[in-house]
């Protein structure tokens, strides 16, 4: 309101504001008003800003191990419903076609995720005992979250301010594991029963494992759970509660009792087909699955050059309230919901082209839903009918995961501008007045309608207790990929750094094999290397490759695979970040290495340091060393060592940005000044002053040189070193004396005790990586475990990084690749999870039959392990034949003596 008060004040007193001061005051008030209005506008926009889906992943029924397989299944028009597999429960024990039979299930059908007993517990830092106790829904969410971030092109931990919103409505694994006989339980698993199976742990586990610190919610509104979770996540980002969010839904069927309850409610399709909108629609098919998406503000996704699958324009959630019945949907409530979502998106109904319906395939629910759709979307002014379909005709009803699965399908539809076919519509439901509805169902795959705007679609999900959600998506805006100048992106000397790491040696080899098989990309190789590095965490087993072409990379990968684990060094054990030594020598060659010129052109941090200290020299000495690089001898004598100092110091600054820091330094001669800056003894400007004063003194008498040097030294601030300092002057480690004038006066004229200093270096620490700045002067001592590198050219610099990387250093690759554009590469190989089985050995879904088998096995054991008469043996056979299992099969037991 302040801006309007300012405006009214100016209007009221405008005539009296004729003096210059009064006009200035008025202009000031007007500027304040404008700034306030702009702030309000920006705030309002951020509270309504569209959100971008930047990552998607999931585990879907059948062969749908990822979103690409899921999308291909939709394009193929497949129905992947199957009979209930034996690993869930014994179908024959629980099936009865008569829905009135208590304790039975009248449907044989469902859609099921494969290999839910398999999990890479070690990758996520989970012990085998905890993994065994952990609901496989948690496991699927962990894997899918990781895959969603791989799909987004960066690691989960890159942004701690991440919210987690998960939809879930069942947790059946606890029933399975608690029915395991106590004597068969590993007692170490029992403490994890609660944390492994409660709802809140599904979201909490993601935050814990990946270090997310935003809101963390597990949402249960039945079949609308994951779409409600998405709505909450969007609002949390817009309100500033988190910068991005992980949104997921998961559903598994692990015990027969849940399906039995739904069967008794007559909700299931007896023939196992979800025939949404068809006259023969007779219920839904239960399905399994897990889907996860990563969302953030659209403006930030564009800024970060993210790949945007789709944009979330708006969403809404409401409740049916009172009505015809607790589980009966309300057309009026659904209509209000859709209008709220459209208002949230700022769109008209006619601007939406497709609607992914809740569409469970019930004779009552389908007409109610389409009535609301027609009232909102169909009755609006529109150029063509609204397309309406449902993924449930392909995979059944994924319940808590249904809404987010619909979002994944719809996001891929708007992205690819294809509407997959809606299955099982042969005879349209006569309760739906199709002739009056401006709605079409895509019975075959359709191209997206031609529109002069983004493709737009809506997704609905309705909970059976009345909570409804509706989300509106649109296709991603056309954004320009980061442009890159060949001079900025062409690798120095043609070399690239490619690296992989994994939790185990086997995983690393499999990871390398996946990259060997990955198709060549029409991209600069260092863009590919950066994309791989951005999704590959730093783990114990590591391998780097210095390559020049994609063919070179594949050849080296093949050589690595041929050698197998023999090509691996000892696994990195989380070495200390500073376990390296910097050596600064006395060399001052009359040529500046080409490496420094290349680094100056490529890395802003390096260039900034060079410019700062070259400017310091220019200001204080009148010499521009940057103009003398091609002929450094043209300047005064001190120019050569000063130029080496400037560039070598800039290299230490660049290495620091890459998190390469020394744990000790060794300096001798001129190099001791650089060592002093690295150890915090003096700043770079003071070191340059002393170095130049020392070099200028060489052209005069020793007495004058000493006086000149002492005069400069008077203005230098000296400190004790912050890391161990081996002095080439003293031939030993020094500390307090470095902060004294006497040390540096003696250094200016003293002799070098290099042999003693190097001998000391070889005795400190173990397995140290030593970096020598300048031409090589120090050789490894016999029996030394230290590894020496000289920074002379770009390949040698990459070899240093490779040695550090393989040894366990946490290098900052974002800084290393600062000039390489971010580009998400579709289908880039993901981390190869090393799966192991974590599952109760006994199938408790077959508990009755298991008991019978146990009795049979006991009788067989008795039959074959004791001395029985023929009459006694006949009695055992008679008992076995009376077991229900054998009576049902009508096959007599055949027991025989074992050898």
Sheet-strand content, in percent, reads: 5-15%
Number of strands: 25
Order of the strands making up the biggest sheet: 6-5-7-8-1-9-16-15-10-11-13
Which CATH-level-2 architecture of the largest domain?
3-Layer(aba) Sandwich
Principal-axis shape: elongated
Largest sheet: 11 strands, mixed
Outline:
With 899 residues, the chain is α/β, with parallel strands linked by helices.
SSE blueprint:
Blueprint: H1 2-12, H2 20-48, E1 51-59, H3 67-75, E2 82-83, H4 91-94, E3 109-110, E4 118-119, H5 128-133, H6 136-152, E5 162-167, H7 173-178, H8 199-210, E6 216-219, H9 225-238, E7 244-251, H10 256-264, E8 289-297, H11 298-303, E9 310-319, H12 331-345, E10 354-356, H13 365-378, E11 386-389, H14 392-395, H15 402-416, E12 418-419, E13 439-440, E14 446-447, E15 456-462, E16 467-474, H16 486-489, E17 496-502, H17 505-517, H18 525-534, E18 541-547, H19 550-563, E19 580-584, H20 594-602, H21 604-621, H22 639-657, E20 664-667, H23 671-678, H24 684-697, H25 702-713, E21 725-727, E22 732-734, H26 741-749, H27 754-763, E23 769-773, E24 787-791, H28 794-806, H29 813-816, E25 836-837, H30 847-865, H31 870-881, H32 884-889
